[in-house]
SGNH hydrolase
Amino acid sequence: MFFAKSLGLGLSTAVVSTVALTIANNNPLIYFHGRWDSSPGSWWASTGFKLYVQNLQTLSLDLQADSSSPVGLGVSVDYGNFTSVNASPGTNVIPLGSPNACGSVVRINAWGWQNERMLLQDLVLNSDAVLLPYEAADVNFLFIGDSLSAGQYLPMGVDQAWPFLIGEEFKAEATVIAQPCIALADVVSCSNPHGMSVQFFDTEDPNYIDMPDHDYTTPWNFSNDKPTPTHIVIHIGANDVSHGVSASQFVTVYLSFLQRLRTIYPTQPIFVFTPWGWPQPDGTVGYYYVGSYEQIVSQSQDPNVHLVNTTGWVAYGDIFPDNLHPTVAGHQKIAGEFTTWLANWGLRPAAEWATPV
Ligand SMILES: *[C@@H]1O[C@H](CO)[C@@H](O)[C@H](O)[C@H]1NC(C)=O
Ligand SMILES: *[C@@H]1O[C@H](CO)[C@@H](O)[C@H](O)[C@H]1NC(C)=O
Ligand SMILES: *[C@@H]1O[C@H](CO)[C@@H](O)[C@H](O)[C@H]1NC(C)=O
């Protein structure tokens, strides 16, 4: 796709420019976020990059051969709603609508809890586009969880899930380290070889075991967290209880996970969600580890670990009956509840995004 530019000489002919601006995948003006390996390749749903571009007309992504085929990309231009683009190895034209001539923000992420590997070769922009530095928001949420945070069963995965919606609502950065069926305790669960208490500290999400080009893990270098998380939210436990982890074992593993997080994130507020449970057709809700989350918060003896009581947040009408996971509307409801909770706690959405368009 090329940008037709008029010479403005009174001629009706438009000249098609075939010159393009190629941006290498290590250009420091690409604002990478989430967990990337050195390819650079994305791991964990929600990982992606942001661009701030003056005079943006066209954008395509060249993806390396080992990218997922297809990889579902969420694309948002100038803070509009994310739409899905199925990208594949090779050249992918990204639809942009009508971006602002002066400055445009393009946000692209991998939304899938699987098939989430975007291996970036380079970016191709119209020749007269100018890449500018993207300025990150002051608030950067880090969400840690399982399918209920990864957006499993949603058409656009994590991009429609409550953690990501919180980032959007607060005009904040958001990283979601979440994987369906993962436990906190280090047990094998579905195809996850490890629990979150181990996997969180790796660059790779648990899908690494199925990747022919990269079937190993590497320690995540937390200096590469971009930007450093300012607020940490944890919603986990459903797959511990289903794997027979006792309440006392769960409390123990959670407390040591918090201690290890504190070595990386010494002062950030940490929000511990109680489960919203499994709503049933008769109106009851199946809760698990009742009382354990209160115990974790109090035994942590950490004044900046806060209990978020989600009792009653999710009802039968908010879930898919066949898998009991929240629907698109259900996730929006949860995001609304947590937005209210955070406002009462003292955090309100920013008025504007940090990078203006
Ligand atoms: C963006 O999404 C929201 C929530 O789904 C919807 O209410 C709104 O109409 C959408 N905006 C546009 C421009 O499509
Ligand atoms: C981690 O990243 C930082 C900043 O990029 C770098 O200085 C440091 O050497 C890295 N540590 C390791 C163990 O690679
Ligand atoms: C959580 O909220 C429910 C419903 O309001 C209440 O019954 C329960 O006692 C609360 N739990 C805690 C630990 O505050």
In short: Residues 294, 309, 311-312 surround 2-acetamido-2-deoxy-beta-D-glucopyranose (ligand 3) (CB under 6 Å).
